[in-house]
Amino acid sequence: MDKGKKLKLIQLPKGERYLAVAAASILARDRFLSRMESLRDSYKIELPKGASDSVVTAGKQFVQTYGHNSLEKIAKLHHKTTEKIKGSKND
Q1: Residue 20 sits in which domain range?
Q2: Domain assignment present for 68
Q3: What is the Cα gyration radius of the chain?
Q4: What secondary structure does DSSP assign to 6-57, as a single string?
Q5: Residue 5 — pLDDT band, cuts 50, 70, 90?
């Protein structure tokens, strides 16, 4: 935006009513699930989705096996769940 780029952002509920949005959503979900399966196969560890206690448990097991530095390969590092896995003071 600082370089003169102009972008009109439109946000609306139920965007999936538009074919392109629905298709993009389906493709994104498929890619996400495929990648999760690939990571599971590569690291030989079940990687549950979401932010539940099972995710934290699996994340801690992953860190024990592969180290904190490898966490960036499977997790979004800025999420609260990742902080719980790392054992921060936010537990």
Answers
A1: 15-86
A2: yes
A3: 18
A4: -------TTGGGSHHHHHHHHHHHHHHHHHHHHHHHHHTS----SSSHHHHH
A5: confident
Whole-number pLDDT of residue 85: 92
pTM recorded for the entire structure: 0.72
Q: What is the number of structural domains in the chain?
A: 1
1 in a domain, yes or no? no
- Could you tell me if 44 and 38 are in contact, meaning their C-beta atoms sit under 8 angstroms apart? no
- Distances in Å between the Cα of 59 and the Cα atoms of 31, 44, 75, 88 are 21, 13, 9, 13
Whether residue 91 is predicted with pLDDT greater than 60 in this model: the reply is no
> Which residues, 6+ apart, have CB-to-CB distance to 16 below 8 Å?
22, 25
Q: Is 31 exposed, middle or buried (0-12, 13-18, 19+ CB in 10 A)?
A: exposed
